[in-house]
Amino acid sequence: MDPGSCKHAAVNVESRNSPGNRLVDRSAVRHGSPRVPWFRDILGIVGAGWFFARAVDPAGAVETVVVLSPHNEAIREEFERGFSDWHQSRFGQVVDVDWRVVGGSSESLRFVQSEFARKADGIGIDLFFGGGQEPFYELAERRWAEPCALPAEVVSGLASDVTGIELRAADGTWYGAAISSFGILENLRVQALARLPRVTRWEDLADPRLEGWVGAGDPRGSGTMHVMFESFLQARGWDEGWRLLTRIAGNTRRFDRISSTTAKDAALGESAYALAVDFYAFTQIAAAGRSNLSFVLPQDFTAINPDGIALLRGAPNRTTACRFLEYVLSDSGQKLWLLPRGHPEGPKRYSIERMPVRPDLYGRFRGVSNIEFSPFDLNSAFRYDARKAQQRRGVVATLAGALFVDVHDDLRAAWRVLVSRGLPADALAEFGGVPLTEGEAKELATAQWRDATVRNAKRTEWQSWARAKYRRLARLEH
Buried b vs exposed e over 338-353: b needs ≥16 C-beta within 10 Å? Predict the structure, then answer.
């Protein structure tokens, strides 16, 4: 059955639980709620004298914190509202969170790199909020992140690791703010209409019956996709990992720039299977329903990774920024991840559906949260090595982009020919080959990768190599 014939199986996710546009113009002056413009406050004032007194009272000034984040609108809105309310109750001041969004975590890190190259003492941004461990290792190693002094009662409730994976830096330069797991979002309605199988392992996504039904993202722009691709290489080994990824790429309909689009496309029936981080999957499931969508943690291996937060060097609003970091890690902030929308201690407009880093919350709210398990109870043999991933991040992401994304039409044409010929072993081995060994990739990442000339030359070289390989295999049909 052709993928295009199942578009009527799309699930409507434009519900009241789906992030929409900003509620107010950012230029509006805020006084009460951080989301309510000044003229609405005026309507609620009893006595004009109070208003004019507040207008000139320094204590009524609005504090600002500038946060660079790849997080979606739902997370940004809930944490802005929650933090401003928390800050006002504790310090008597409303806070305007000035969000800076440049793309996914990979694009955000590149932005920070380029800015610190020009302005070594500070880049006018207080916090980097969101993304896996790798960006935060780099921020710490380059001394672009600085520690905040946090209250002992906040730090004491935080776990130091989950399944052996560290959740914070020993020197406090970064903290895990939430925990992510990575798996497969399935559209059950599309599968039923197209007579497609359910999947339980990553290997299942290489089944030729799934051709055109798999969704994925570009690891060069998406930190989520980079972690997932890197997980294959660590769990299966360099050569076998690339072979499996290449077969899955043959079934992939397209590679999205950002990973949230991949999850949305699965919910809309554009794909039946999507590589997804848990919270993007849970967001779609909350909107579309469990009878339509399902999220699977594959049985062969599953990566667990913290989503971080760090204070940047030269933060212009350091005091308020450290308070934001404190709030995110506090009991109040962590409940925003876990609790459903409408719970008195949870988010107000959107259910975020993410796993917190405070272990005690899982037991306290069991049966209340839609997250039914604690990552601290998992017994996984696979340990994702974030430091290894960070060291070769640029090489792996660029190689994957050159082999899969940039020449995807040629790759899919070769895959169809191999499938039609019964997947001959010798041709299949060539199909999944890569132009360098793991050792060569490590050496390249260590010695030369920061040179833009080298990076550009390698990208072009790998694209040409891959295109020639796929076209050679496609000619086997004749």
Answer: bbbbebeebbebbbbb
Among residues 354, 364, 318, which one has the least CA distance to residue 333?
354
In angstroms, rounded to a whole number, what is the distance separating the alpha carbons of residues 255 and 261?
10
Is the pLDDT at 61 greater than 80, yes or no? no
What CA dihedral angle connects 443, 447, 450 and 456, to 10 degrees?
A: -60
**Length, in residues, of the chain:** 478
Residues 384, 227: contact at Cβ < 8 Å? Answer: yes
398 shares a domain with 315: no
φ, ψ dihedrals at 469, nearest 5°? -65, -50
**Would you place residue 287 in the very low, low, confident or very high pLDDT band (cuts 50, 70, 90)?**
confident
Query: CA–CA separation, 322 vs 126, rounded Å?
Result: 9
pLDDT in tens, 313-366: 999 999 999 999 999 999 999 999 999 899 999 999 998 889 999 999 999 998
pLDDT digits (tens, 9 = 90+) for 377-390: 877 788 899 889 98
Picking from 323, 355, 375, the residue at the C-terminal end of a domain is: 375
* Residues 434 and 340 both lie in one domain: no
- The structural domain count of the chain equals 2
Burial of 367 (0-12, 13-18, 19+ CB in 10 A): exposed
| Alpha-carbon gap, residue 53 to 51, rounded angstroms | 5
Tell me whether strands 273-277 and 214-217 are parallel, antiparallel or unpaired.
Answer: parallel
Cα Rg of the chain, angstroms: 24
